[in-house]
Amino acid sequence: MKPIIHTYTSKEPMLRVNAYIVEAKDEIVIVDTTLTMSDSKALKQKADSLEKPLAGILLTHAHPDHIAGTTNIAPDGDVPIFALASVKKLMEETEQEKHRQWSEMFGEEWIPKWVYPNILVEDGDTVNIAGLTFSVLDIGSGGDCDTNSLWLLEGKKSAAFIGDFIYSENHTYMADGSILRWIANLEKYSGTLKNYDTYYVGHGPSCSYPAIAKQKAYLIDYCSEILNATHGTAVFTEESKKQFEETMLSKYPGYGCQFMIGLAAERVESELVSLSTDE
Asked: Metallo-beta-lactamase domain location, by residue (predicted)?
């Protein structure tokens, strides 16, 4: 049978993160595992309802909303959990910081201990699992995290599980990684991704090849509006930041994750200032 891809979208209101269950003939594969207690348990319930064993888990990057739920999917780490070595390393480096930062806000919904990848992969590796073939690309910090990967499902139903490389119909998190490397990666990997029918993203509806140009245009627009609001200095005042946020909201009125606009502003501002200083 052709694999069937089931989407689980989290119920928590801020991020609305996606996780995916890839259903093959005899087994299933889960891609990313959500953030909260309730959502990860609901994801597991949805997976269990298919009545097929879990062959493994693929993790796209190290942000908690994509990896924390592994604790409720495979609490003992007794199934293969695949990720880049850099993803595991970043999880190890940031876990305690994320607990301190977010546990009070989420309360009982916060998952207090993470389960780590147990099979590490490298750029270009092929993973054969559940009778399916996935290839993995290490795209480094050119995305919304300091380490990112793309998981490509080969075969008759070609699909790309791209984590947060593209935010579909959503404002974009840019407080980590590098916006300039991200733009470069969108150009670099567009030729590869053109060969895949559907992109399964971390936030928003699935999309396809035109979404690459759309994401690139959004990132460039974000930088441009920072420069417009700050009269070319890329240094915010309270007033200019407010103006910037209002402009982005008006230009993308239907986009979700609106809080991301202000959250990323200082990080991108710093990168633009650094660029002008280097010149």
From this structure: 16-203
